[in-house]
Write a structure and sequence with these properties.
The complex is a heterodimer of chains A (about 450) and B (about 425).
Chain A: H1 3-9, H2 16-31, E1 34-37, E2 45-49, H3 76-83, E3 87-92, H4 125-133, E4 138-143, H5 149-155, E5 158-161, E6 181-186, H6 189-199, E7 221-225, H7 234-249, E8 253-257, H8 265-280, H9 300-308, H10 313-325, H11 332-353, E9 357-361, H12 370-374, H13 378-383, H14 389-394, E10 398-404, E11 411-416, H15 422-433
Parallel strand pairs in A: 2-3, 2-4, 7-8, 7-9
Antiparallel strand pairs in A: 1-3, 4-6, 5-6, 5-10, 9-11, 10-11
Chain B: E1 2-10, H1 48-60, E2 68-69, E3 72-75, E4 85-88, E5 95-102, E6 105-116, E7 120-123, E8 128-131, E9 138-144, H2 151-167, E10 177-183, E11 189-195, H3 197-216, E12 224-229, E13 234-237, H4 244-247, E14 250-251, E15 258-259, H5 271-282, H6 286-293, H7 297-306, H8 312-324, H9 332-343, H10 350-357, H11 371-384, H12 388-394, H13 398-409, H14 414-429
Classes of the chains: A alpha/beta (about 450), B alpha+beta (about 425).
Chain lengths: ~450, ~425
């Protein structure tokens, strides 16, 4: 039974939501999971990543550029959740505009609930923390290059990133539109499935959103790709081998493969992502919404430049890279080539995924401490996404789930399926969870 | 001398290009939404009817079309551009490689693309306001080859283009915004945002003279963007334009590719060509036919109906009368009666037109009056009224009196009577 059904069956008492909000408030000071907390009074609680618009609630994507911005409309996902009776709990913390793997690129980074000295992962940091501390809750999160898998793995929750285009992006503050996918974090595959059924489906406000024929292919084959394990730390590989043994024990056929072109995935991803991001971020010029520049005596260009000083360093870096790679004189060498590489990788991976799942460690490293993560240079930090990027680059659905707790910290694996095989992944989770119990340090709102 | 144009045609769709805001709001900033205001989280969704109209324009301009069209982002920073990029087309436009023929001339059409209009900037002395009603209005940009040779050629080309657009149902009353690329020598100067054919021809003439003066004095023409000052009648330097390098075009990933297979579009109608063909076939004056047909759907409708039933002369006559008496909406059968009456030399006045328009029928049996009889009656009238001729010499309106008197006696076309009268007076003078 999903915890959603369980929640509605239990007697919650009158004061439930007040106590819930109070307890979250107390812990939030320490963990920074929420950027804003709503006034929930009914329904199963759901949180929304702060780059997804909720009408009347401050929505900033953790950026100073959108400081105090209150959207005049609900994102389609939010609209559908509310209509189904879910209760809006709050906006969750994230890396500014989704730019980051550790949740550190924002004013108050979220902290790992298993150990506050450690990162929560990014960019959907707050969504993962909220899911990890709340007994009855689901998180609407979003992934561009691994922003659901990574924080879900670090915080020990289920992260489900569906096939690109299955959940409407209307109301999502764009990072890279051809890569952005709204997804779900939950404490079980069943919860994720229930929410997916509520929010998916075509939408007149998003031209890329479709109603596909879903298949449910689980062939019993699991492929482990060299390029998606090479470079992982010894410790990560030791744990991952145990997972493979365990799955083999359950009857899965594990097969190793190599796919050289995946070495180009990170480069292709960052070119496309920054090219699109640099155009998406062009709209923040300090005079229509969010941060306001009041120096109206300035010339336009000076006015815009002045306002745009307020982007964080990582946002500026991606604007600079993205603007460069789409410039007319180099576009063919970067942007256009990256699109071609993406097409090749999609074709290659689709060929493999029709015969089985792909399994890999979510990250090549164990959850780093905040101090460690802060010391990484940008390139090393980008490379940390090398295992989560391929399915994200290609729009393949994937789940991230916990399979062990070495030294008391969760460690996660990512399972990828073919386009529209979303339910096969959710089915796998149900099977996995029948033999593995997730652990949580907090159970706020337990009944 | 070479002139090329970028013609921007605003489409009168019900809603804007990428959102469901009305496309005709009068009061400023009332037809706006998160999408056309560029709010975070908003997404564009293509208006299919704009796609269809734009395809009609591309086909009418004899463009080639690809199977699919796609949209790109053109990035530049300006207050009228809410997303700081314009959604337009690049490699896969609505049409390319077309051409317009007018008379013996032909100008190539490089491309026809569908794009969104930026907002309207209202400049005041101390401040600038922005009306976002215009933001997101569908525009078709028609880019010509630089094959227009002089200001007169420019006028003829635009007349033809506007007629084609008129017959596609485009409201050409809303003046077209046109950028002019003009070069006499090596370097090309762009004159931005000129509205109206007259201004455009003037701007071309002034820019041509400016460039000629520069070249004659041994100076170089700077490649730049200028604007036309209607009041002063000169072109002036204007804002710096971004280069293609800076626009940094990428596909708009919020929009998919759109297949043109099965997209319906209006069949074009070339009034200029029809006027030319009919002038030859029916021996009519081409200029007169053009004057009647280039911007008049009803005139064309009535002419097409009557062309092989009545003489072209009487048809042209009848259409002119309908224009004069605001009766262009007349049905074909009534028009036929009217043209028949004129053909027989009968009289058609405002009364007749009104009667036909209100569904009545007219007597088309014209009284047969022999020329000799008519002439005799006119002379009798003149002789009966002493001093009429003297008075005519002083006041030509006397002429109308005679015609009027004759029309009391016969149901004849006043023009016919006047013709006879003129002839008689001339003979008399000799």
């Amino acid at each position: 039974m999903s915890s959603i059904s369980e929640f509605y069956e239990k007697d919650r008492g009158e004061d439930y939501y007040n106590r819930l909000i109070e307890e979250i408030g107390g812990l939030n000071g320490k963990l920074n999971a929420f950027n804003a907390i709503g006034s929930i009074s009914e329904g199963f609680p759901f949180s929304v990543k702060d780059n997804i618009c909720v009408k009347g609630i401050e929505t900033t994507a953790s950026s100073k550029m959108l400081g105090s911005y209150v959207p005049p409309f609900n994102a389609t996902v939010v609209e559908r959740m509310l209509k189904k009776g879910f209760g809006f709990l709050g906006k969750t913390n994230m890396d500014e505009f989704g730019f980051g793997s550790f949740g550190l690129n924002c004013a108050k980074p979220a902290r790992n609930p298993f150990n506050e000295k450690y990162v929560a992962g990014g960019s959907s940091s707050g969504a993962a923390v909220a899911t990890s501390i709340l007994k009855y809750h689901v998180a609407i999160a979003e992934s561009t290059g691994g922003s659901i898998s990574t924080p879900a793995a670090f915080c020990g929750v289920v992260g489900f990133t569906p096939t690109y285009g299955t959940i409407s992006r209307y109301g999502l503050i764009d990072y890279a539109n051809s890569l952005d996918k709204i997804g779900i974090m939950a404490r079980s595959g069943d919860d994720a499935r229930e929410v997916f059924d509520v929010v998916r489906g075509s939408d007149g406000n998003d031209a890329t959103c479709t109603d596909p024929d879903y298949h449910d292919r689980n062939t019993g084959n699991i492929f482990v790709i060299d390029e998606l394990t090479n470079g992982a730390s010894e410790e990560v590989m030791r744990e991952f081998s145990r997972l493979l043994d365990s799955l083999a024990g359950k009857g899965y056929r594990i097969e190793r493969k190599s796919l050289k072109i995946l070495e180009k995935a990170v480069a292709s991803y960052y070119v496309i992502a920054t090219a699109e991001a640099s155009t998406n971020l062009a709209k923040y010029t300090g005079f229509k919404y969010g941060l306001k520049n009041d120096k109206f005596y300035q010339k336009y260009n000076d006015f815009f430049s002045d306002a745009r000083e307020n982007f964080g360093i990582e946002a500026k870096r991606r604007i600079a890279i993205g603007t460069f790679v789409r410039g007319a004189s180099v576009k063919d060498r970067y942007y256009v080539k990256a699109l071609k590489v993406r097409r090749l990788i999609i074709n290659e991976l689709a060929g493999i995924l029709k015969d089985g799942f792909i399994l890999n460690p979510v990250m090549p490293i164990k959850t780093p401490s905040i101090e460690e993560a802060e010391s990484l240079d940008p390139l090393t930090s980008y490379k940390a996404d090398m295992f989560t990027i391929p399915p994200n680059l290609c729009g393949f659905p994937h789940v991230s789930f916990t399979y062990a707790y070495p030294d008391g910290m969760p460690i996660g694996a990512q399972l990828t399926a073919g386009h529209f095989d979303d339910y096969a992944l959710l089915g796998f989770l149900k099977e996995w969870e029948s033999g593995f119990k997730y652990r949580f340090r907090y159970d706020i709102g337990a009944l | 001398m070479k002139i090329g144009l970028e013609v921007h045609v605003a489409l009168q769709t019900n809603t804007k290009l990428f959102c469901r805001c009305r496309n005709d709001a009068a009061e400023v900033n009332t037809a706006i939404c998160p999408t056309c205001m560029g709010f975070p989280g908003s997404k564009p969704v293509l208006n299919g009817s704009a796609l269809s109209i734009a395809l009609g324009i591309a086909k009418a301009l004899n463009c080639k079309t690809r199977e699919k069209v796609s949209f790109i982002r053109k990035v530049y920073f300006y207050p009228d551009l809410p997303k700081s990029y314009q959604i337009t087309q690049l490699d896969e436009p609505m049409g390319y490689d077309g051409g317009v023929e007018y008379g013996k001339r032909k100008v190539g059409i490089r491309r026809v693309q569908l794009e969104e209009d930026p907002a309207r900037i209202i400049r005041e002395e101390e401040y600038t306001l922005i009306d976002f009603n215009r933001s997101g209005v569908p525009l078709v940009e028609i880019v010509t080859e630089p094959e227009i040779v002089d200001p007169e050629d420019l006028r003829s080309f635009l007349f033809e283009l506007e007629s084609i657009l008129y017959y596609l149902g485009i409201d050409i009353e809303k003046e077209l915004k046109i950028d002019l690329n003009i070069s006499l020598g090596r370097n090309r100067v762009e004159v931005k945002n000129v509205t109206g054919i007259r201004n455009l021809v003037d701007a071309a003439r002034h820019e041509m003279e400016r460039q000629k003066a520069l070249l004659d004095s041994g100076k170089d023409v700077v490649a730049e963007t200028r604007s036309y000052n209607e009041g002063k009648g000169v072109t002036e330097e204007s804002r710096e334009k971004e280069s293609d390098e800076e626009y940094g075009y990428i596909y708009d990933p919020d929009l998919t590719e759109y297949s043109l297979t099965g997209v319906e579009f209006a069949k074009p109608l070339m009034a200029g060509k029809i006027a030319h063909d009919y002038a030859e076939r029916y021996g009519a004056n081409e200029d007169t036919l053009r004057e009647l047909l280039m911007f008049n759907r009803d005139a064309l409708r009535l002419l097409e109906h009557a062309k092989d039933r009545r003489s072209m002369k009487s048809i042209i006559n009848a259409i002119s009368l309908l224009r004069k008496y605001n009766g262009m909406e007349m049905d074909e059968d009534s028009f036929d009666q009217m043209a028949m009456l004129l053909e027989k030399g009968g009289y058609v006045g405002e009364e007749t037109v009104k009667k036909l328009l209100s569904g009545g029928s007219i007597d088309i049996n014209v009284e047969e009056v022999k020329v000799e009889d008519l002439d005799r009656e006119i002379l009798e009238l003149i002789n009966k009224n002493e001093g009429l001729i003297e008075e005519y010499e002083k006041n030509p309106k006397t002429f109308n009196f005679i015609v009027g008197e004759m029309m009391k006696k016969h149901k004849l076309n006043p023009r016919y009577i006047a013709e006879r009268l003129g002839k008689l007076l001339e003979e008399r003078r000799k």
